Amino acid sequence: MDWGKVKFFLGEVLRNFTRNASMQATAIGTVAITIVILGVFLFVRGELAGVGAKLLDQIEISAYFSTNATPAQIASVRHLVAADPRVESVEFVPKKDGLAELRDRTKGAIDTSTLTENPLPDKLRVRVRVPDQVPAVATSIGRLTAIDNVVYGQTIVQRLLQLGDVMRRVGIAVIVIFLFVAGIIISNTIRLTVYARRREIAIMQLVGATNTYIRMPFICEGLLDGMIGAIVAVAVLSLARAALWPKMLEALPWIGFSSTPIDLGAIVAELFLVGAAIGIVASWISVGRHLRT
């Protein structure tokens, strides 16, 4: 590789970049605003997904044995449930322990001293590896002999699963719309830069420069626009998070937000990639349109 040519090429890119400072500032501002909005959306979506996953992780299946179940039947059901690969853990809760748990949970609101016998049945407490599989595992357990009833908060689980599915679909749609709109805006901005340098491009075509050779400086400028816009956006988002996130944790403790809810490094990397991709693709399209006219 001829480093002299590379150095000259990069120098020309930097000169052209600074020569059209006002247009570059417009492109950088557009990228920054787009990435700030996208970053806020990714952060909120990740946080809500984390809250939903935390709620689903706390859900357990309670499988109640019939009152006439024999110890052999209980042992057989316990073995079958534990052998299911979808099941993470199985705990047998005798009715005596179930009554003690009821006393602790109600904190004296229910007077159990008047009971002549324990009305609670034995039960299995089952946790599933993947929350999406809770309904299917509960249905399987309910079909086993000696199981009288299965409870797992069906309504809550189904609504949380539906909410998660809707959020995934909406998230993909919003991201695609953001990228499409940002691409159009930045492409038009860069087209102004291309138009301002149309004579320079015409001279390069007259002396036999290839389309790729003409495109490369604009693509590098688009890459710089995208990366600088991403840096500005990440800086704004970091400052906003440092100022607002502790107040949100304090104001909304009942939601169950975590102080380290999501992988911020992954979001920052995604935003930088998005910024670079927007700049490159928008430049490629803008210059391509000009070269075809």
Please provide a written account of the structure.
This protein has 293 residues and is an alpha+beta fold. It is 72% helix and 8% strand. The chain is built from nine helices and four strands, in the order ααβαβαβαβαααα. It has a four-stranded antiparallel sheet with strand order 2-3-1-4. Helix 1 crosses helix 8 and helix 2 packs across helix 8 (211-251). The longest helix has 43 residues, at 154-196. The model has no long low-confidence stretch (mean pLDDT 78).
Quaternary arrangement of the chains shown? single chain
Order of helices and strands: HHEHEHEHEHHHH
Gap between N and C termini: 33 Å
- The neighbouring-strand order within the major sheet is 2-3-1-4
Structural Rg:
31 Å
Instruction: Tell me roughly what share of residues is in helical segments.
Output: over 70%
Number of strands: 4
Beta-strand content bin: 5-15%
Low-confidence stretches: none
The largest pleated sheet is described as: 4 strands, antiparallel
Structural class of the helix and strand makeup? alpha+beta
Number of helices: 9
Shape: elongated
The averaged pLDDT comes out at 78
